[in-house]
Write a structure and sequence with these properties.
The complex is a heterodimer of chains A (113) and B (111). Helices cover 0% and strands 55% of the residues of chain A. In chain A, the strands form two sheets. In chain A, strands 2, 4, 5, 6, 9, 10 and 11 form a seven-stranded mixed sheet that branches. Chain A has a four-stranded antiparallel sheet with strand order 1-3-8-7, with no helix packed on it. Chain A has 113 residues and is mainly beta. Chain A contains no helices and eleven strands. Chain B is mostly beta strands. In chain B, 0% of the residues lie in helices and 59% in strands. Chain B is built from no helices and eleven strands. In chain B, strands 2, 4, 5, 9, 10 and 11 form a six-stranded mixed sheet that branches. Chain B has a five-stranded antiparallel sheet with strand order 1-3-8-7-6, with no helix packed on it. The mean pLDDT of chain B is 92. Classes of the chains: A mainly beta (113), B mainly beta (111).
Chain lengths: 113, 111
C-alpha cells in the first residue's frame, strides 16, 4: 500500500483565498483524521471521520474551516477565506479501527501571506 | 480538561539510554501511545500501552501506570538517527479512536 496520500505537499497563497487540502487514506481504514501542527500549538486534532461520517469536529477553529469525506477513499479540508494565522502543517491520518495505530500522511505545508 | 505533560527537551550521547516521561490527565483514558517525528517529517507510531507494565519493541520500550497516570518511553543504545521529537498521546475510550497529543519532547543525540 502507498500509505496515506496528501496533496498538495506545499501551498503558498494570499490572505483571503480559498485553500483546499486533499487526503487519500489507506484502503480499508475506517477512520480518517485531520490535524494541524504549529510551533505554538503543537499537534491539534481538527476533525475525524468514521466510515465517512464526521464524528468530532470540536477542534475545527472556526467557520472558515470545513471538511468533507464524500467516500471512503477521499477527504478534503477547506479554508475559506484563508488568513496568515492558518499557516501550519496539516496532516491527514487514517487507522483501521478505533484501537489501532494511526498512520500519518506526509503533510501539507501551508503558508498564507 | 485533557492534558499531557512531557519535558520539552532531552539531550543524550550515542549508546546511552534515555527515558522520556509523560503524565496525563484525560477523561475516559484508554491507552497511551508514543509517536516519533523527525524534522520535516510526519509522526510515526512507536508503541502503545493499554495495560499497566512494560512493552518492548527492539531498542524502544514503553511503560504505563494507570494508577499514577504516568508513562514513559525508554530508548536504549541511542543512535544519531534517534534525534527527533517524541510525542505521547492518550486515547480516550468510548468506541472512538481520538488521540490527544502532548507537546512533544525534542531529543538530541550527540556523538
Amino acid at each position: 500500500d502507498a500509505g496515506v496520500i496528501q496533496s498538495p505537499r506545499h501551498e503558498v497563497t494570499e490572505m483571503g483565498q480559498e485553500v483546499t487540502l486533499r487526503c487519500k487514506p489507506i484502503s480499508g481504514h475506517d477512520y480518517l483524521f485531520w490535524y494541524r501542527q504549529t510551533m505554538m500549538r503543537g499537534l491539534e486534532l481538527l476533525i475525524y471521520f468514521n466510515n465517512n461520517v464526521p464524528i468530532d469536529d470540536s477542534g475545527m477553529p472556526e467557520d472558515r474551516f470545513s471538511a468533507k469525506m464524500p467516500n471512503a477513499s477521499f477527504s478534503t479540508l477547506k479554508i475559506q477565506p484563508s488568513e496568515p494565522r492558518d499557516s501550519a502543517v496539516y496532516f491527514c491520518a487514517s487507522s483501521p479501527n478505533w484501537e489501532e495505530t494511526q498512520y500519518f500522511g506526509p503533510g501539507t505545508r501551508l503558508l498564507v501571506l | 480538561g485533557q492534558s499531557l505533560e512531557q519535558p520539552s527537551e532531552v539531550t543524550a550521547v550515542e549508546g546511552a539510554i534515555v527515558q522520556i516521561n509523560c503524565t496525563y490527565q484525560t477523561s475516559g483514558f484508554y491507552g497511551l501511545s508514543w509517536y516519533q517525528q523527525h524534522d520535516g517529517g510526519a509522526p510515526t507510531f512507536l508503541s502503545y500501552n493499554a495495560l499497566d507494565g512494560l512493552e518492548e519493541t527492539g531498542r524502544f520500550s514503553s511503560f504505563l501506570s494507570r494508577s499514577d497516570s504516568y508513562g514513559y518511553l525508554l530508548l536504549q543504545e541511542l543512535q544519531m538517527k534517534d534525534s527527533a521529537s517524541y510525542f505521547c498521546a492518550a486515547t480516550s475510550s468510548g468506541g472512538y479512536n481520538k488521540l490527544i497529543f502532548g507537546a512533544g519532547t525534542r531529543l538530541a543525540v550527540h556523538p
